[in-house]
Amino acid sequence: MARLLDKYRNEVVPALKEALKRDNPLGLPRIEKIVVSMGVGKAIENKNRLDAAARDLGQITGQKAAICRARKSVAGFKLRKGQPIGVKVTLRGRRAYEFLDRLITIVIPRIRDFRGLSPTAFDEAGNYNLGIAEQAVFPEINLDKMEFVQGMNVSIGVKARHPGESFDLLKRLGMPFRQDQAKSAEGKATEAKAVSASAG
Question: For residue 117, what are the β-bridge partners?
Protein backbone atom coordinates (compact mmCIF):
# COMPACT_ATOMS: atom_id res chain seq x y z
CA MET A 1 0.00 0.00 0.00
CA ALA A 2 1.22 3.48 -0.90
CA ARG A 3 0.32 5.19 2.37
CA LEU A 4 1.59 8.58 1.21
CA LEU A 5 -0.38 8.38 -2.03
CA ASP A 6 -3.54 7.75 -0.01
CA LYS A 7 -2.68 10.74 2.18
CA TYR A 8 -2.21 12.88 -0.93
CA ARG A 9 -5.60 11.86 -2.35
CA ASN A 10 -7.61 11.96 0.87
CA GLU A 11 -5.99 14.81 2.83
CA VAL A 12 -3.65 16.92 0.72
CA VAL A 13 -5.85 17.31 -2.39
CA PRO A 14 -8.87 18.70 -0.44
CA ALA A 15 -6.56 21.05 1.50
CA LEU A 16 -4.88 22.29 -1.69
CA LYS A 17 -8.25 22.78 -3.40
CA GLU A 18 -9.30 25.07 -0.58
CA ALA A 19 -5.97 26.88 -0.28
CA LEU A 20 -5.50 27.45 -4.02
CA LYS A 21 -9.19 27.91 -4.86
CA ARG A 22 -9.12 25.26 -7.59
CA ASP A 23 -11.72 22.56 -8.12
CA ASN A 24 -9.93 20.52 -10.80
CA PRO A 25 -7.46 18.04 -9.19
CA LEU A 26 -5.36 18.17 -12.37
CA GLY A 27 -4.66 21.83 -11.68
CA LEU A 28 -3.18 21.09 -8.26
CA PRO A 29 0.54 20.52 -7.58
CA ARG A 30 1.50 16.85 -7.70
CA ILE A 31 4.55 14.63 -7.85
CA GLU A 32 5.30 13.52 -11.41
CA LYS A 33 8.46 11.52 -10.82
CA ILE A 34 11.44 10.99 -8.52
CA VAL A 35 14.90 10.49 -10.01
CA VAL A 36 17.50 8.87 -7.76
CA SER A 37 21.03 9.03 -9.18
CA MET A 38 24.58 8.20 -8.22
CA GLY A 39 27.55 9.86 -9.91
CA VAL A 40 30.37 7.31 -9.83
CA GLY A 41 33.43 9.21 -11.03
CA LYS A 42 35.76 6.58 -9.56
CA ALA A 43 34.29 4.04 -11.98
CA ILE A 44 36.86 5.36 -14.48
CA GLU A 45 39.56 3.65 -12.42
CA ASN A 46 37.51 0.79 -10.95
CA LYS A 47 34.54 -0.70 -12.85
CA ASN A 48 33.46 -2.55 -9.70
CA ARG A 49 32.36 0.79 -8.24
CA LEU A 50 29.73 1.16 -10.97
CA ASP A 51 28.45 -2.40 -10.54
CA ALA A 52 28.21 -1.95 -6.76
CA ALA A 53 26.39 1.38 -7.15
CA ALA A 54 23.90 -0.13 -9.61
CA ARG A 55 23.22 -3.03 -7.25
CA ASP A 56 22.74 -0.76 -4.21
CA LEU A 57 20.50 1.64 -6.11
CA GLY A 58 18.38 -1.27 -7.31
CA GLN A 59 17.95 -2.49 -3.74
CA ILE A 60 17.07 0.99 -2.50
CA THR A 61 14.46 1.75 -5.17
CA GLY A 62 13.20 -1.72 -6.07
CA GLN A 63 13.86 -0.98 -9.74
CA LYS A 64 16.77 -1.79 -12.04
CA ALA A 65 19.24 1.08 -12.38
CA ALA A 66 20.06 2.56 -15.78
CA ILE A 67 23.69 3.33 -16.68
CA CYS A 68 24.57 7.00 -17.31
CA ARG A 69 27.33 7.69 -19.83
CA ALA A 70 29.58 10.70 -20.36
CA ARG A 71 28.26 13.10 -23.00
CA LYS A 72 31.70 14.34 -23.96
CA SER A 73 35.38 13.62 -23.41
CA VAL A 74 37.33 15.49 -20.72
CA ALA A 75 41.07 14.91 -20.95
CA GLY A 76 41.77 16.36 -17.50
CA PHE A 77 39.61 13.67 -15.89
CA LYS A 78 40.71 10.92 -18.30
CA LEU A 79 37.09 10.71 -19.35
CA ARG A 80 36.00 9.49 -22.77
CA LYS A 81 32.66 10.18 -24.43
CA GLY A 82 30.26 7.29 -23.86
CA GLN A 83 32.11 6.00 -20.80
CA PRO A 84 29.85 4.81 -17.92
CA ILE A 85 30.07 7.30 -15.04
CA GLY A 86 26.87 6.86 -13.05
CA VAL A 87 23.55 5.13 -12.48
CA LYS A 88 20.00 6.37 -12.04
CA VAL A 89 16.45 5.20 -11.48
CA THR A 90 13.26 7.08 -12.39
CA LEU A 91 10.23 6.33 -10.21
CA ARG A 92 6.69 7.29 -11.17
CA GLY A 93 3.19 6.86 -9.77
CA ARG A 94 2.76 4.57 -6.77
CA ARG A 95 6.47 3.66 -6.64
CA ALA A 96 7.43 7.34 -6.39
CA TYR A 97 5.10 7.88 -3.43
CA GLU A 98 6.28 4.67 -1.73
CA PHE A 99 9.90 5.81 -2.06
CA LEU A 100 9.10 9.31 -0.78
CA ASP A 101 7.25 7.82 2.19
CA ARG A 102 10.31 5.73 3.15
CA LEU A 103 12.57 8.73 2.58
CA ILE A 104 10.55 10.94 4.95
CA THR A 105 9.74 8.43 7.69
CA ILE A 106 12.80 6.16 7.78
CA VAL A 107 15.80 7.48 5.83
CA ILE A 108 15.96 11.20 6.66
CA PRO A 109 15.70 10.63 10.45
CA ARG A 110 18.74 8.31 10.17
CA ILE A 111 20.95 11.01 8.64
CA ARG A 112 23.69 11.98 11.08
CA ASP A 113 23.35 15.47 12.64
CA PHE A 114 20.18 16.12 10.67
CA ARG A 115 18.61 19.52 11.41
CA GLY A 116 16.01 19.77 8.71
CA LEU A 117 15.95 20.06 4.93
CA SER A 118 16.66 23.34 3.19
CA PRO A 119 13.39 24.85 1.94
CA THR A 120 15.32 26.80 -0.71
CA ALA A 121 16.55 23.84 -2.77
CA PHE A 122 13.81 24.23 -5.41
CA ASP A 123 14.68 25.05 -9.01
CA GLU A 124 12.69 27.49 -11.13
CA ALA A 125 10.36 24.71 -12.30
CA GLY A 126 9.52 23.78 -8.71
CA ASN A 127 11.51 20.54 -8.54
CA TYR A 128 13.25 19.76 -5.24
CA ASN A 129 16.81 18.40 -5.06
CA LEU A 130 18.27 16.60 -2.07
CA GLY A 131 21.77 15.19 -1.62
CA ILE A 132 22.43 12.15 0.58
CA ALA A 133 26.04 11.49 1.61
CA GLU A 134 25.91 7.71 1.84
CA GLN A 135 23.59 4.86 0.89
CA ALA A 136 23.97 3.23 4.32
CA VAL A 137 21.04 5.32 5.69
CA PHE A 138 18.66 3.18 3.62
CA PRO A 139 17.48 0.08 5.53
CA GLU A 140 17.62 -2.01 2.32
CA ILE A 141 21.42 -1.83 2.36
CA ASN A 142 23.20 -4.63 4.19
CA LEU A 143 26.21 -2.94 5.79
CA ASP A 144 28.15 -6.22 5.88
CA LYS A 145 27.85 -6.52 2.10
CA MET A 146 28.31 -2.82 1.23
CA GLU A 147 31.51 -2.51 -0.82
CA PHE A 148 31.84 1.27 -1.17
CA VAL A 149 30.37 4.38 0.46
CA GLN A 150 28.47 6.17 -2.26
CA GLY A 151 26.53 9.44 -2.20
CA MET A 152 23.41 10.10 -4.24
CA ASN A 153 21.04 12.80 -5.41
CA VAL A 154 17.27 12.65 -5.09
CA SER A 155 15.34 14.92 -7.46
CA ILE A 156 11.61 15.20 -6.77
CA GLY A 157 9.85 16.32 -9.93
CA VAL A 158 6.77 18.36 -9.00
CA LYS A 159 4.15 19.55 -11.45
CA ALA A 160 3.16 22.98 -10.14
CA ARG A 161 2.58 26.52 -11.38
CA HIS A 162 5.10 28.08 -8.98
CA PRO A 163 7.95 26.81 -6.74
CA GLY A 164 5.93 28.08 -3.78
CA GLU A 165 3.23 25.57 -4.59
CA SER A 166 5.83 22.80 -4.71
CA PHE A 167 6.99 23.77 -1.23
CA ASP A 168 3.39 23.77 0.01
CA LEU A 169 2.81 20.29 -1.44
CA LEU A 170 5.95 18.71 0.01
CA LYS A 171 5.38 20.30 3.41
CA ARG A 172 1.85 18.89 3.54
CA LEU A 173 3.25 15.47 2.60
CA GLY A 174 5.56 15.64 5.62
CA MET A 175 8.94 16.82 4.32
CA PRO A 176 10.89 18.02 7.40
CA PHE A 177 12.03 21.48 6.28
CA ARG A 178 14.25 23.63 8.50
CA GLN A 179 12.14 25.94 10.62
CA ASP A 180 14.50 28.91 10.43
CA GLN A 181 14.13 29.14 6.64
CA ALA A 182 10.64 27.72 6.23
CA LYS A 183 8.92 31.04 6.96
CA SER A 184 10.47 32.73 3.92
CA ALA A 185 9.50 29.75 1.77
CA GLU A 186 5.97 29.88 3.16
CA GLY A 187 5.89 33.56 2.23
CA LYS A 188 6.76 32.66 -1.34
CA ALA A 189 4.04 30.00 -1.31
CA THR A 190 1.51 32.59 -0.11
CA GLU A 191 2.62 34.98 -2.87
CA ALA A 192 2.23 32.19 -5.42
CA LYS A 193 -1.31 31.51 -4.21
CA ALA A 194 -2.17 35.20 -4.57
CA VAL A 195 -0.73 35.35 -8.08
CA SER A 196 -2.50 32.12 -9.01
CA ALA A 197 -5.82 33.34 -7.64
CA SER A 198 -5.59 36.64 -9.54
CA ALA A 199 -4.65 34.82 -12.74
CA GLY A 200 -7.39 32.24 -12.37
Answer: 177
For residues 47-78, b (16+ Cβ closer than 10 Å) or e, as one string?
Answer: eebbebbbbbbebbbeeebeebebeeeeeeee
Q: Are 178 and 200 in contact (CB under 8 A)?
A: no
* CATH code, domain carrying 114: 3.30.1440.10
- Total domain count, the chain: 1
Of 59, 9, 56, 47, residue with least CA distance to 30: 9
- Taking 3-state DSSP, the helix, strand and coil percentages for the chain, each rounded to the nearest 5, stand at 50, 20, 30
pLDDT tens per residue, range 60-105: 999 999 988 777 776 666 667 767 778 999 999 999 999 999 999 9
56: in domain? no
Q: Is the pLDDT of residue 199 over 70?
A: no
Note whether residue 153 is domain-resident.
yes
